[in-house]
Amino acid sequence: MAAPTAEPSANDILVFGNGVSLALAGETLLVKDKTQAKRHQNNVCGVPLGSAPSDFSIPTYNILWAEAAGQALAIDYAEPTSKTQLRPTKLNYPLNELPRDVVDKWVETLLARAYGTAQRRKRAKVLVNPHAGPGGADNIWEHDVKPLFKAARMSLDVIRTSFSREAIDLCEQLDIDAYDVVIPCSGDGLPYEVFNGLGRRPDARKALQQLAVAHIPCGSGNAMSINLNGTHRPNLAALAVIKGVKTPMDLMSITQGSNRMLSFLSQSVGIIAEADLGTEHLRWLGAKRFDVGVAQRIFGKKVYPCDISVKVEIQSKGGVKAHYKRDRTAEDFSQRKEGQISKGSSSTGESTSSEADAGEGLPPLRFGTVNDKIPEDWETGSHDKLGNFYCGNMAWMAPNANFFSAACANDGLMDLVINDGDIAALKYMGLMMSVETNKFFDNSLISYRKIVAYRFTPREQKDGYISIDGERVPFEPFQVEVHQGLATVLSKSGRYATPGPLGWEK
Ligand SMILES: Nc1ncnc2c1ncn2[C@@H]1O[C@H](COP(=O)(O)OP(=O)(O)OP(=O)(O)O)[C@@H](O)[C@H]1O
């Protein structure tokens, strides 16, 4: 656990007698208690090392709750039992002669450091998809998540989804004043339904702003959790949600035929969409199914002819890195924390705000629908040899898949990656593998731009795969535009958990 960062002052120490004391030192709680220290050492290290310890420390981030009730002080915290596992643990000390007002003040200081600007005791609507990913969502919820949420004194209203699209109806009808957060325990499919359900309401904008959406990873990709909680491990994600701060996040409107839907993650056509959606017959391969699908198309030199029209905001990779640096450094966390969220214009200056428009439902479409004329200032190109069209709103698409390393949560821009499909196989493999080493962005085989809107029109193919947030939609033209900060999510640090494109600091 982290080393103490500051010397505790006298007010920060509670002395219980018999050599037991609790001290607040910066972002750490120092526990001087031989019995607990020994138990802690055994649990965390497995095997006791050296002489018996007399104290140990707990990062305040791991503190779930504290209260003086009756004649005792109780502290709940998330104790790591391995690098990826936490379990709720309790410390109890009789108050003895300690004055109650001193203890109450100490408890409030501890909670203030534990939660910072994050809301305490969040009221959650939890949606568990028993069929998500490998099918362990019920177990994950019961054993890895619920005990931590309970120890943090969250109020929980839990529903197991029983059919596809149920979460859309649930969120459309939800009493938004009764909850602070909706938490899908699922893959990325259920968050998609949550955003779309909230988006269908007559008070969509209010609902999307007032109610945060947070994610517990139970699927196979779990992009939402990786980007916002910084992990795809359910235990660690649960703690990140408990401590999560409200963060505005861009959403995208998609029009196709006469439909309008919201997308929070990505749209893809070509190799990625096919390798994901077109390999159902290879399910027996497990996670390798996607890699095999990619390799098959690389060696087949598969191309996807199409027309693409784009409203480009930042054309060059250098410009994108500079934008990323501005977003990451100019807007420090304090500006993004709860109650201090600034919305209004993208960091490129153009207003993309959803709030600026009057009305309660979803913001009006600034560029019309897929059935309207394409605006004249959009760049239009014919792509005979397209291999991959990939538009993202978050950085990670899965663990080890940081495709959109310059994605920012609330910049009012989408990140667009395009590459041809007739690349030499070895180079293509290298390109795909560079995603894992964060060198994808700089690879000269792809273009990487920041955009505001686009239209995609497939050509010369009877059928194919279009993926919206990982779900298949009809193989027909579609148009997309971004709404800055339309949604509210909970994130660990007020921004995406991404290292950014290599060298952005320079
Ligand atoms: N009880 C249910 N039975 C069948 N389908 C369900 C049920 N509950 C939800 N669904 C549907 O399951 C779909 C996939 O959900 P989810 O994203 O949670 O899992 P996943 O697709 O397995 O995960 P990943 O996207 O990570 O692969 C959603 O579109 C949702 O509508």
TrEMBL record:
Residues 344-355 have a biased composition (Low complexity). This is Uu.00g007730.m01.CDS01. Pfam families: DAGK_cat, DUF7493. One of its GO terms (molecular function) is phosphotransferase activity, alcohol group as acceptor. Residues 119-258 form the DAGKc domain. Residues 327-340 have a biased composition (Basic and acidic residues). Gene3D superfamilies: 2.60.200.40, Probable inorganic polyphosphate/atp-NAD kinase, domain 1. SMART domains: DAGKc. One of its GO terms (cellular component) is cytoplasm. It comes from Anthostomella pinea. Residues 321-372 are annotated as: Disordered. One of its GO terms (biological process) is sphingosine biosynthetic process. It comes from the Eukaryota.
